């Protein structure tokens, strides 16, 4: 386990989606966070105390979480320099980037010298097997999306909590770096060799006979040219009984690909159901979850109601309006 409490890193970030790991920890593990570190050119805040790296260490932070992401998951010199400063201040360092902390010689040497640890959250397990798609017992739900970073992790955690509130056993199964940091376990599926993606998810959510649900965090989108392969492997390995579609209604184009429009909800639902049927012939859609955080409350509520009527499925923003309708449809 990564030592807590955390100091959350925003650095020089100017992309609101790129800070999703730090933001996710601030939302779901706030009790484990002492503050945030950001430069003056960063326009965002997590509404945590702003601290320097030295102040964070003095306040008791045991780990600096480099909770930012960019395309390709690489570390620039400024990020490496800040990680060095954190180690010199006595903090461990954790990151969910594709470029590993341990592969930066300066960081590895300093961590060893100071008796501290580097945590590369995007390390997949070493005992993965190829998936087989055979039917397995248990209830499984997978969140899917029209694009990357549209709220799949938030929805998955909210669904897990909503099921538990109904007295139903449910487990959140994390598949990305933010979810893994929140849950303390999981598989960083986008770092898994392609042949093993479906098998990794079969291991993450194995057969169960207790009547409970595995609620599996989705990744990417079948319509995103960069990440559709991960989404496909997840659908096959999850073998979901149900899917919930996630969407950001104010998103203007696919993340990182200006000019490429997002798919419509109907076509995206149909495609996800079609792909899922390879390993789960009876899969069904049980709801749509919108990220309306950039919209006025009344406008957001009206959009959810209109979308529900248009798609014939319960539609909500799980963080604003709850999930009663979706859970009702799931358990009927």
What does this structure look like?
By secondary structure, the protein is an alpha/beta fold. The protein has 2 domains: 6-120, NAD(P)-binding Rossmann-like Domain (Rossmann fold, 3-Layer(aba) Sandwich), CATH 3.40.50; 139-331, 3-Layer(aba) Sandwich (Rossmann fold), CATH 3.40.50.300. Helix content is 35%, strand content 16%. It contains 12 helices and 11 strands. It has helices at 20-28, 53-58, 77-88, 105-114, 152-165, 177-183, 197-204, 228-238, 265-276, 297-311, 318-321, 324-331, and strands at 6-11, 33-38, 63-66, 92-95, 118-120, 139-145, 170-173, 213-216, 242-247, 284-290, 315-316. The strands form 2 sheets. A 6-stranded parallel β-sheet has the order 7-8-6-9-10-11, with helices on both faces. A 5-stranded parallel β-sheet has the order 2-1-3-4-5, with helices on both faces. Strand 3, helix 3 and strand 4 form a beta-alpha-beta unit. Helix 3 (77-88) packs parallel to helix 4 and helix 7 (197-204) crosses helix 8 (228-238). The longest helix has 15 residues, at 297-311. The radius of gyration is 20 Å and the shape is globular. Residues 46-124 form the D-glutamate N-acetyltransferase-like N-terminal domain. Residues 131-324 form the D-glutamate N-acetyltransferase-like C-terminal domain. It holds the Pfam family DUF1611_N. This is DUF1611 domain-containing protein.
